[in-house]
Amino acid sequence: MRYAKAVLTVLILLAAITALCAQPEKAEREKVVIGVIGPMALPEGQAEEKAVKLAVEEINAQGGILGHKVEVVVGDTKLDSNTATSEFRRLATVENADVIIGGFSSGVMTAMMETMAETKTLFLSDASSPAHAQKVEQNYEKYKYWFRVSQNNGSTFALDLADMVKFLRDSGYEVKKVYVIRDEHVWTDPVMEALKPLLEEMGVEIVKDVKIPRGYSEYEQLILEAENLNADLIMPILAISGTGDILVKQWATLKPDLLLAGHDLSAIDAELYEKTNGMANYEIFLADGGALVTAPPTEKCREFVEAYKAKYGHYPESHQAYGAYDAVYLYKMVVEMAAENGEKDPFDPDILVKYLVRFNASNPVQLTRTIAFYDNHDLMWGDEYVRNWISQWQDGKQYIIYPPSVANGELKLPPWIQK
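Structure (tokenized):
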């Protein structure tokens, strides 16, 4: 009886071992999926999608990521928080995106960060509110998957705008009064909070601070009011409005005795001069994201803008293209770094965060711009990293006019300016 039981036990164990051996091995990864998300009816979202697809095409031609083919899936936020979170979730859970790139619009980004945290999806993002990096600071484990890649924290715009005023003064154009026109949107509030004391220190008065909604087009009345208030310049702080081109056309038509100089996202579009029939001439603007088609800061940037034009027939329609393109290559780099260091799963987002943070002030990476991150995963600001260069449209071309270390042009005042 004992012998029979022993035999039975051995048979059961052998059956169990055989069953285990018969189990199929864990399926090997077939591909790498990169999600890109943004407002796909707008230039910002379109540029992100095109840039990501261009980078992926290049990477696949070189053998993919760790030998895996890369596939792109796209989500449209429609600039709506509910739609954005739903699309982010779809990309993360249905399309199984390994990383999601893009965003645009600070309010939409804030909403998507919650879905990012829930799905634990690496998010190489675009949007400028300081609130995003603050989330990382306040709850690192929850929000650590977020990194700002496309442009600097919006509060740095205040530093650049203050430098713009100082530069104009140093160039002989006196600025004592400023008329601000800005988006009625969360992203402009921290810009103004930081800008006001900087201007006050220089003795510059903000004669009026006007908030406008998306789609606003009645700039003529504001331009005339600015002139009546003896403003020396109109300072736009515009992105979400989507109508900066209308502002510059009305300014050029009225020819007021004041400059148009500030943050106008539409001015970064390499096609703005043609779109405005040359009326964009003399507009002074910040080159968000630290790159211009006519002044690429790195060799990779120069190669990128030419490849973009060759593929799509035009240069990048917004600065989001640079960040989205860099994000794909950043992802490839950290995955390969993780694999080289023997990580069990080099695609694990928790692992990749640890490699991304290695790109800091002492160890930046040069892509289309020189990328480094602060501890809160904000994009590092500065002349040697990414900065919103002070630029101007002159005779159909965009020139950086400050700081001198990167400038390829000099300030030109409109011929109708009398001051």
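The mean pLDDT is 92. The chain has two domains: 29-152+297-371, 156-288+388-402.
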